[in-house]
From TrEMBL:
MF annotations from Gene Ontology: 2 iron, 2 sulfur cluster binding; metal ion binding; NADH dehydrogenase (ubiquinone) activity; oxidoreductase activity
The name this protein goes by in its record: Uncharacterized protein
Cofactor (UniProt): [2Fe-2S] cluster
Residue numbers spanned by region Disordered: 195-235
Amino acids binding [2Fe-2S] cluster: 119, 124, 161, 165
Source organism: Clathrus columnatus
NCBIfam families: nuoE_fam
Keyword list, A-Z: 2Fe-2S, Iron, Iron-sulfur, Metal-binding, NAD, Translocase
Gene3D superfamilies: Glutaredoxin, NADH-quinone oxidoreductase subunit E
Length: 235
């Protein structure tokens, strides 16, 4: 039997000061779940994914198949999911474990119905992500990132860049982005999910996408048409 440190998380901020802590250890036998296999529909999807790769390199499908298994398994990748994918791809189970434990996109313990990932990388931090993370934790009555609410509706973690820096601060819920957040709009998003609703995705500030928050300052006139302002010989 071995022990696994399941996730690194951080304590809520105390005036911007953060301490890094590790979550509790889980013994290996706690990671084993009931047998897993793809549903008939997902098995067809898996076979279609595998067909994208040469037969001798079908193990390259390990990441999309683990993602497919995680989605079927209520958002987390159990040992049973890993073993099933290893058998399907004819890989040593340890090779699949290495992938599942390396990429943070794979959750190795059960999560809530709504999986919230709050970005706290530099661009988001400069725009107030510390306050957003603290708002999420306080509103859901959680102490630390990595915890799940008692009703099982929410799991909150702190993550690195989600690629929406121009719309910072932001968070991801499931597969959807919620950007330009303030503590007030963050609470509205959480309340909507708590009621079983799906709030409007994208910027919560009124911006359409990621245009300049101060208004349009470039490309604000009719673009040139084909051939305009060209020398006569090039028309």
């Amino acid at each position: 039997m071995f022990s696994v440190c399941t996730r690194v998380s951080r304590l809520p901020a105390t005036r911007g000061v953060r301490s890094i802590v590790t979550s509790s250890k889980r013994n290996s036998d706690a990671l084993f779940q009931i047998p897993f296999e793809f549903t008939p529909e997902n098995r067809k999807t898996a076979e279609e994914i595998i067909s994208h790769y040469p037969s001798q390199y079908k193990k390259a499908a390990v990441i999309p198949l683990l993602d497919l298994g995680q989605r079927q398994n209520k958002g987390w990748t159990s040992i049973s999911v890993m073993n099933y994918v290893a058998k399907l791809l004819e890989m040593p189970p340890m090779r699949v474990y290495e992938v599942a434990t390396f990429y943070t996109m794979f959750n190795r313990e059960p999560i809530g119905d709504n999986f919230i990932q709050v970005c706290t990388t530099t661009p988001c931090m400069l725009r107030g992500s510390t306050e957003i993370l603290d708002t999420v934790l306080h509103h859901l009555n959680l102490k630390h990132p990595g915890e799940t609410t008692k009703d099982g509706k929410f799991t909150v973690i702190e993550v690195e860049c989600q690629g929406a820096c121009s719309n910072a601060p932001m968070m991801v819920v499931g597969d959807d982005f919620y950007e330009d957040l303030t503590p007030e709009t963050t609470k509205k998003v959480l309340d909507a999910f708590a009621k079983g609703q799906k709030p409007k995705t994208g910027p919560q500030s009124g911006r359409h996408t990621s245009e300049n928050a101060a208004g349009l300052t470039a490309l604000n006139s009719k673009p040139y048409g084909p051939g305009e302002f060209c020398q006569e010989e090039f028309k």
